[in-house]
Design brief:
The protein is mainly α. The chain is built from 18 helices and no strands. It has a single domain (22-201, 226-434), classed as Up-down Bundle (Growth Hormone, Chain: A). It is globular and about 55 Å long.
């Protein structure tokens, strides 16, 4: 390459990134995506705090509750995630798609509120999962075209704040509304904001140019066929280990979070409103601190190389395990809630680095696919099976001890140790990145989907 051509390439790349950074809509779009992500998790998590009155009305066992909070929403989330991501990578208008699916999952949440049987409720929850399936991959692809690689962990960390904010609002708000009215009213009330925000996003947001934030202007931004995308991702050992690290962390955190309201109600005698408010505030604040901390450290340490951003989340998950166990075994509710704060914060440190790495390791033409595969894997292993396995363990321990409260306590202790599985895979991610095996070579475009 001649010096003139190299200078021209560097100048063009700098102009592209600078134009992306100057986009006046970038900050507003990020803020709106955080708001939509918050509503996403409100609709998803509110059932967790409502599960005890739902169990009483429909006469359910714990494994059925685990199905309701886990697999019912993740089944179609899993089935639809990759097809929607392929659609996104082929050039669908991402702003319009996000607005449409936000309105759709809000309507399905309202249907949950008017369901008259367990089967109807599960079916509506599957509809919520189907609508939500495309949001995260589409948003990750959108943000990756708004923020260059150096700033991407920060942007993804801000975006991921929607998770703890949604959990906080869903648990606290859902518990208070259900305590004052009933669980059906709570579901109907949380469905309305999504319809309003969906319309606002469609009117305000703008679609960025694909690959606008990339330093390499020659990186292919057209669609890769699905086989080419999979081969490109599979050749990255870091990406493969990232899938397993995220999925196993999701398994432990979803299994714990989905049952903590029932734990406080059964073991410590809290009311629905007390458990919802306490856990909502706890998980919200701890999640905010952990997510922001994870994004900040990934941006700061990532300058030394991508491998440097994974050490903090890895150590955080390892330290969280004994802290979770201690919180689950103490005799008083106040002490339990106080001791849950540190491991909850540590358990959120991995979110932003995981999202940022999945986007930076993927070719531009397969970013939504890379995100969807990561999310689908986490949902199948984590969100679907975490609550169910914890519920099955609870039923098994209850048969042995003769007490549902004691059974649930020991089930959650066992679930906490699953976080160590994630630590092993994060270590392998760091090793692969340090060896520079994590870089995914961009493949030439090979046409559309077969």
């Amino acid at each position: 390459m001649s010096s003139e051509y190299a200078a021209e390439t560097m100048t063009a790349a700098s102009d592209r990134i600078a134009a992306s950074a100057r986009s006046p809509a970038r900050g507003l779009m990020l803020a709106m995506l955080v708001l939509i992500y918050t509503l996403n998790y409100v609709d998803r998590q509110i059932v967790v705090i409502l599960q005890e009155p739902i169990r009483a009305e429909f006469h359910l066992k714990d494994w059925q509750l685990g199905l309701l909070t886990g697999a019912s929403i993740s089944l179609l989330y899993t089935v639809m995630g990759i097809p929607i991501a392929r659609w996104v990578d082929r050039g669908v208008h991402r702003v319009a798609l996000i607005a449409s699916i936000t309105a759709a999952w809000s309507l399905m949440t309202a249907l949950c509120g008017v369901s008259r049987s367990y089967i109807q409720f599960v079916t509506a929850r599957m509809g919520v999962g189907m609508a939500e399936a495309g949001f995260a991959p589409t948003s990750h692809s959108l943000l990756s075209d708004l923020y260059p690689q150096r700033r991407r962990p920060f942007a993804m960390g801000i975006f991921a704040l929607g998770i703890p904010l949604g959990v906080m609002v869903g648990l606290a708000g859902g518990g208070i509304i259900a305590q004052r009215y009933d669980w059906r009213t709570a579901l109907l009330m949380v469905s309305l904001p999504g319809l309003i925000v969906a319309l606002g996003f469609a009117l305000v947001a703008r679609e960025p140019v694909r690959g606008a934030a990339e330093a390499d202007r020659h990186a292919p931004v057209g669609p890769l066929d699905f086989g080419a995308a999979l081969r490109a991702l599979w050749r990255s050992p870091a990406y493969v280990q990232l899938l397993l690290a995220s999925a196993s962390a999701s398994f432990a955190m979803a299994g714990l979070s989905s049952w903590l309201p029932s734990f406080l109600i059964r073991v410590h005698g809290m009311t629905l409103a007390q458990a919802g408010f306490s856990l909502g505030l706890l998980i919200g604040l701890a999640g905010l601190a952990g997510t922001l901390g994870g994004g900040w450290q990934a941006t700061r340490l990532g300058g030394r190389g991508m491998h440097a951003m994974v050490w903090v989340p890895m150590i955080g998950l390892a330290v969280a395990v004994p802290l979770f166990v201690a919180a689950l075994l103490v005799p008083t509710p106040r002490l339990a809630i106080a001791l849950l704060a540190p491991p909850m914060m540590l358990g959120y440190l991995w979110a932003a680095p995981s999202i940022a790495l999945s986007q930076s390791l993927a070719p531009v033409a397969a970013r939504a696919t890379a995100s969807a595969i990561c999310i689908v894997t986490s949902n199948v292993i984590g969100v679907a099976f975490g609550p169910i396995v914890a519920g099955l363990l609870s039923d098994a321990f209850a048969r042995v001890t003769g007490d549902t409260a004691t059974g649930l306590r020991w089930a959650l202790v066992c679930t906490a140790f699953a976080a160590l599985w994630s630590v092993v895979h994060w270590l392998l991610v760091a090793r692969a990145l340090r060896r520079n095996d994590g870089i995914v070579p961009a493949e030439p475009m090979r046409g559309d989907l077969p």
